[in-house]
C-alpha cells in the first residue's frame, strides 16, 4: 500500500453563506416594517380626505373629509 509523502493541502475556506448577522437583520426588518406601516396609515388617511382644486384662481386646494361610515 502506498503512503502519501505530502499532507494534503486544505482548500481555502469560503465564508459560510448561511451565516447572518442577526442584529443587522433585525434592524433592517424593523425599519422596513415601520416604513410599510406608516405608508399603510398614510394611504388609509389619504382615501378618507378628498382634496380638489376649487378654482383656478384659488391658491390652496379645498379639502373635505369624506363622510365616515354608518351612524350608530
What does this structure look like?
38% of the residues lie in helices and 11% in strands. By secondary structure, the protein is an alpha+beta fold. It has a two-stranded antiparallel ribbon. The mean pLDDT is 77. The radius of gyration is 31 Å and the shape is rod-shaped. It is built from 1 helix and 2 strands; from the N terminus they run αββ.
Task: Compile the SSE list and pairings.
Blueprint: H1 22-48, E1 49-52, E2 62-65
Antiparallel strand pairs: 1-2
Quick structural summary:
The chain has about 70 residues and is an alpha+beta fold. The chain has one helix at about 20-50, and strands at about 50, 60-65.
Features:
72 residues; alpha+beta; 2 strands; two-stranded antiparallel ribbon
How would you describe the shape?
rod-shaped
Rg value: 31 Å
Strand order of the biggest β-sheet: 1-2
Percent in helix:
25-40%
Secondary-structure element order, as H and E?
A: HEE
- Oligomeric form of this entry? single chain
Low-pLDDT parts are none
| Terminal-residue CA separation | 94 Å
Kindly name the structural category.
alpha+beta
Mind describing the biggest β-sheet?
2 strands, antiparallel
How many DSSP helices? 1
Total number of strands = 2
Output mean pLDDT.
Answer: 77
| Beta-strand share of residues | 5-15%
